Amino acid sequence: MQSSPTTNLSSKSAAPLEVHDLTVAYTKRPVLYGIDLEIPKGSIVGVVGPNGAGKSTLIRAIMGLLPVSSGWIKVFGKPFKQAVTRVGYVPQRESVDWDFPVNALDVVLMGRYGRLGPFKRPSKADKEIAMNCLEKVKMDSYAKRQISNLSGGQQQRVFLARALAQESDLYLMDEPFVGVDATTESAIIEILRELQAQGKTLIVVHHDLTTAPEYFDRILLLNMRVVAYGKTEDVFTFENLQNAYGGRLSILSEVALTRARKKFDGDTRDNVGQ
Amino acid sequence: MRERFFPDFDWHTVFVQPWTDYSENSFWIVLMGFLVSGTCGLVGCFVILRRMALVGDAISHSLLPGITIAFLLTNSRDTLPMMLGAIAAGVATVALIEAIRHSSRIKPDAAIGIVFSSLFAIGVILISAFADKIDLDAECVLYGELGFIPLQDVVMFGGMEIGPEPVVRMAIIGLIAIGLLLSFFKEMLVTSFDPGLAASLGINPTRYQYGLTLFLSVVIVSSFESVGVVLVIAMIIFPGATALLLTDRLPKAIWLSTLFSALYAGLGFHLATWLEASIAGGMTVIAGFIFGLVWIAAPDRGLLTKFAKRALKSEIVLPNP
Q1: Positive/negative CA dihedral, B92, B98, B100, B106
Q2: Is A236 helix (H, G, I), strand (E, B) or coil?
Q3: Residue A257 DSSP SS3
Q4: Which residue of chain B comes nearest to A114, CA vs CA?
Q5: Where does chain A show beta strands of DSSP type E?
Q6: Is the Cβ of B202 closer than 8 Å to some Cβ of chain A?
Q7: B241 close contact with A: CB closer than 8 A
Q8: What kind and span of H or E run contains B160?
Q9: How far is A82 from chain B (nearest CA, A)?
Q10: What is the arithmetic mean of pLDDT over B65-92?
Q11: Residue A212 within a domain
Q12: SS3 of residue A12 by DSSP
């Protein structure tokens, strides 16, 4: 099943992410099946779907953290292991122990580890890069702060700075907007746009339907299989959402309502952050 | 039965005599105590951060069948077969725990309990059934005896006496631990903190998990004759746990854990001398005492500071209800 197609594209021009007929199962029960995807360079893709739709599973499968039952995944035309340094990762905030004895700068420096190779320690240059990344997310004044003494939004920004320090071409982000304040939300969006302008590709797991169409230029509607995938304006239709979320119409009407409200006071909201 | 638990405290017999009348014995005992708790503590910092403390306890208990079977197979108490038996037991323990966890609805804590108690029981049966054939002192395996360390064979190197065999072995393992720490610090740090990120950086978290487990087995098997399989977990957890209450940075925690290990060895030895009791027991009681002190009085996160902060807060809040 691992046979890959003969592609005449060189790895440089290959798509950042190509997934073909992917099936992932936890102890026989499939979580994702028949996933086909091709993500073009320079896009920001929102992965949207109900709880248990396999959004995080997809991210973990791309990174080779889960055994694949069938199909294949290619990152820049290569198996993930050969493209490791080109992929940056932002895990869910709850996935780590924030009491861990490291400060914000230590966490960001971890983003450099992939480039250091065995037995090497972060150099002065690495530390400078890490500080610059903290500055980009406006967290440089908290560099020496132990990470449990940061707010949820600040912790998320540290994670983002670490992803920047990875200097990757493809970023996988698992729910970066969960539980963050307005300042952080706008900081994240700013960074995402900047990365996109640099030609990077971003895949962002997101569960807030109200903001999804604003943030992403492509959307992958997921519910164990691909319900719809493509440009946001084509995918984000009532019918597709209904297909992805099943009969939970209450969620959908809520979305419509909030979107309408947001358009109304959208400008004032941007000014909330300092 | 002794008449009184606490013998009269005599400064001279407790603190001076050990270093004048039998200073060589005292030296090897305290050095061994320090090497054991220092090495255990070093590995223990990561064991704690990875929430593997109970796994460490399980491994130490499964050593009993491991070394017993190794002894029955080779009929020798040499280091190599004992080491291999212990490592095999350690690996089997972890593999069984993982197997039960993944293929049933049993949660990790119960899986650990099931695996280590049944393996330990196999060891108990083997030792009692082959008591006449096995030259292993069950009491020594369970509780250890630092007092016997100076009586062991002396290692010679280039015609020079270096020291008792267990001390030399423990020193070598301690040096290996330091070497591994310096070589793989960043890998251990990132795989402990965020395995997902580690994988995305091309650092395989599972490999380091197994590596740590293997080395933990090696450390435990070299320590058990000194502190016993029951108390070795104290030497693994106490230094790191106490240090982590005092600092926010891992490298500093590791330094502090070594300092605490030295205190355990020194003070524990004198406590045991005073009470005429087990030295490993003395070290663990000291470790518990120091942990208690730090837990209550640590400058930033101690109980007293927390109460003080709370009191201060309520004072500030009061005028403005």
Answers
A1: positive
A2: coil
A3: helix
A4: B201
A5: 17-26, 29-39, 44-48, 70-75, 87-90, 170-174, 201-205, 218-223, 225-231
A6: yes
A7: no
A8: strand B160-164
A9: 9
A10: 86
A11: yes
A12: coil
Q: Is the dihedral of CA A121, A125, A126, A128 positive or negative?
A: positive
CA A188 to chain centre: 11
The 10 Å Cβ neighbour count of residue A248 is 13
The number of domains in chain A is 1
Q: What is the DSSP letter of B15?
A: I
Give residue for tokens 């402990």. Answer: B192
Is residue A252 one of the residues assigned to a domain?
yes
**Cβ contact, residue pair A97, B249, below 8 Å:** no
Q: Which of A81, A96, A121 sits opposite B194 (nearest CB)?
A: A96
In chain B, domain spans: 11-146+164-311
CB distance A214 to A236 below 8 Å = no
Q: Is the dihedral of CA B81, B83, B85, B87 positive or negative?
A: negative
Q: Is the predicted pLDDT of residue A114 greater than 90, yes or no? A: no
What is d(CA A96, CA A105) in angstroms, rounded to the nearest whole number?
Answer: 16
Using CA atoms, how far apart are residues B169 and B174, in angstroms rounded to an integer? 9
Q: Which residues of B touch A166 (CB under 8 A)?
A: 200-201
pLDDT band at A249 (very low <50, low <70, confident <90, very high): low
Is there a contact between B152 and B166 (Cβ–Cβ < 8 Å)? Answer: yes
Quick check: B183 and A119 CB within 8 A?
Answer: yes
Range of the domain at A212: 17-262
Which pLDDT value is given to residue B313?
73
B53: contact with A, CB 8 A cutoff: no
Beta-carbon separation of B196 and A100 below 8 A? no
Strand order in the sheet with A70-75: A29-39, A17-26, A70-75
- Superfamily of domain B11-146+164-311, CATH level 4: ABC transporter involved in vitamin B12 uptake, BtuC (1.10.3470.10)
Rounded CA-CA distance B195/B214 in Å is 19
**A174 and A90 Cβ atoms separated by less than 8 Å:** yes
β-partners of residue A29 are A26
10 Å Cβ neighbour count for A119? 11
pLDDT in tens, A224-246: 899 999 999 888 888 888 888 87
Cβ partners under 8 Å of residue B190, min gap 6: A110, A113, B197, B198, B201, B203
Residue A159 in domain: yes
Which residues of chain A does B187 touch, with a Cβ-Cβ cutoff of 8 Å? 113, 118
* Contacts of residue A161, Cβ cutoff 8 Å, sequence gap at least 6: A104, A108, A111, A130, A133, A134, A136, A137, A139
CA B250 to chain A, closest CA, distance in angstroms equals: 5
Whether chain A has a CB inside 8 Å of the CB on B244: the answer is yes
Tell me how far apart the alpha carbons of residues B75 and B90 are, in angstroms, rounded to a whole number.
21
Q: What chain B residue is nearest to A63 in terms of C-alpha separation?
A: B200
A60 touches chain B (CB under 8 A): yes
ipTM above 0.95, yes or no: no
A35: domain CATH number? 3.40.50.300
**Where is B154: in which H helix or E strand?**
strand B154-157
